[in-house]
Amino acid sequence: MRLWDVRTGECLFVWEFPTAAKCVSFNKHGTQILVVTEERMGYRGALRVFNINRDPSSWKKQETEPMRTITFSGSKATVASFDVFDKHILTGHENGKVALYAHDTEEGESGIDAELEIHQVKAHAENVTDLQLGWDGTYIVTSSKDKTAHIIDASTLDVIKTYATDTPLNSAISLPTRPYVVMGGGQEAMSVTTTSARQGKFESRFWHKIFEEECARLPGHFGPINTLAVHPTGNAYASGGEDGYVRINWFDESFFKSRPYGPDFEIANEDQ
């Protein structure tokens, strides 16, 4: 895992692990970072949390030992995120489970996942491929190989909304100023060479967050979409694909003037 200075492109620090790192995520204030490592070669899958030294004069001096470690004894985690208050950690697993762990920012408790888990829900039938915090922090958006995406309450883990598609999903995001969930995926990479972009279903898909209806598709990639991220203002989103391209899509003015709840009803952007 590498820590970078985004202004200069300089690598500040490198953490080494015995197996591959699958997911990284900063907390709200950038003072901690978590990493999920793979289960391989006799090593169990684990989630580690490191404190980040924010002093510019000593950025290259970071702690090498995690402040907490969660070792997975059952289904291994594939994705993870801090909650909006940095008091909990949410994880998505290979068997479709979504779990919640308490997180003390001062004294991290380490141990086996079953001992530290607050509660869990079997949200998906297959591997959870993405888990991102909603913009108000009250919910998370998950995607899965089972061809569905969910909005899940970040505290109770109740499934609030379900978006069922016809293709495996690798990522899903919620827009901050419009009531849409964007998701992407497509046919597995091993079959891409024999499949056209249309048949492979490599488009970004826009679903109405409230009505659970697909509204639009945006093509562009000629391979599966692996990851999605939205601009903090909601004016654009980026997609990264198996084709090696990162595409940045800016929404035009008509996107923000449309009335997604019907011609006679309108909600302010900050309340979407």
Automatic annotation (TrEMBL):
GO biological process: one example: cytoplasmic translational initiation
One Pfam family here: EIF3I
TM segment ranges: none
Sequence similarity: Belongs to the WD repeat STRAP family.
GO terms assigned for molecular function: RNA binding; translation initiation factor activity
Residue stretches of each WD repeat: 121-162, 218-248
Domain of life: Eukaryota
Alphabetical list of SUPFAM superfamilies matching this protein: WD40 repeat-like (SSF50978)
Organism expressing this protein natively: Malassezia globosa (strain ATCC MYA-4612 / CBS 7966) (Dandruff-associated fungus)
Name of this protein: Serine-threonine kinase receptor-associated protein
GO cellular component: eukaryotic translation initiation factor 3 complex, eIF3m
Key words, A-Z: Cytoplasm, Initiation factor, Protein biosynthesis, Repeat, WD repeat
